Amino acid sequence: MIAIETWLLLLGFAVPVVISPGPGNTVLAAAGAKFGLRGTFPFWLGFELANLFWCLVYGLGLSELVRQHPLLSEIMKWAGTAYILYLAYGFLQPAQPSDGKQARPLTVADGIVSVSLNLKIHSMILVMFSQFMNPAMPLFDQVLQISSVFMLVCVACHFPWIYAGQLIFSRIRTARAMRLQGYLFAACMVLVALFVAFS
Q1: 72-89 confidence digits (pLDDT tens)
Q2: What confidence tens digit (pLDDT) does each residue in 86-108 have?
Q3: Cα(first)–Cα(last) distance of the chain, in Å?
Q4: What is the distance between the alpha carbons of residues 195 and 199, in angstroms, rounded to a whole number?
Q5: How many CB atoms within 10 Å of residue 115?
Q6: For position 101, what pLDDT does the model report?
Q7: By the 8 A CB rule, do 55 and 121 touch?
Q8: What is the mean pLDDT of residues 52-56?
Q9: Using CA atoms, how far apart are residues 2 and 72, in angstroms rounded to an integer?
Q10: Phi/psi class of residue 97: alpha, beta or left (left: φ > 0; alpha: ψ in -120 to 50)?
Q11: What's the structural domain count of the chain?
Q12: Residues 163, 82, 65, 53: is their CA dihedral positive or negative?
């Protein structure tokens, strides 16, 4: 079992980095605003499943591979930038097009891809496992425990972003206001993409 001091340090690390603004939280808030909590749930589920997957992968050994091959980080950075721009384009599409069809909400697969191409999340998980793993303890038990705590932190910290997006923008109903909202979110996503690309 991991020591209580390590848990407290882990929480002190994870909560601020997970709840802080970044590409993932920007997408979650924008999705909450456009599709509501229920409509965003599949995306959120994919988002958290991907977080768990990458925790297990990094915890069980990928972090060493990334350290040895920095080109992998560079590839992920540019792929992530392209995907954020793709999502920004999606937010430019009207929520209620003139032909009466509803805009397609983001899916579980979108959530998985969003996390998988998000360099901030990969960096965060890499740092977490390199800082909080104890070589004297069984690897699998530690990875499972740290991943479980990280998942709980992610769910608790991502929900407010989705809910705030829904709450703040739920009163926007006119076509013009919804179009402006889409432009605002697309602009935010483009800024995030630029930050990811050039940081």
Answers
A1: 767 767 876 787 787 778
A2: 777 876 776 554 555 566 788 99
A3: 37
A4: 6
A5: 26
A6: 54
A7: no
A8: 95
A9: 31
A10: beta
A11: 1
A12: positive
Q: Match 């605002």 to its residue by tokens.
A: 184
* Nearby residues of 151 by Cβ (< 8 Å), 6 or more positions away: 48, 51, 52, 55
> Residue 59 is which amino acid?
G
* pLDDT tens column, 122-174: 888 988 888 888 878 888 899 999 999 999 999 999 999 999 989 987 776 67
Give the 3-state secondary structure of 107-124: CHHHHHHHHHCCHHHHHH
Residue written as token pair 């402006």: 180
Residue with tokens 């069980």: 60
DSSP 57-69: HIIIIIHHHHHH-
CA distance 38 to 16: 26
Buried b (16+ CB within 10 A) or exposed e, 141-167: ebbebbbebbeebbeebbeebbbebbe
Which position has the token pair 């705030």?
164
Contacts within 8 Å (CB) and 24+ apart, 73-76: 73/119, 73/122, 76/117, 76/119, 76/122
Q: What is the pLDDT of residue 43?
A: 97
Q: Which domain holds residue 52?
A: 4-198
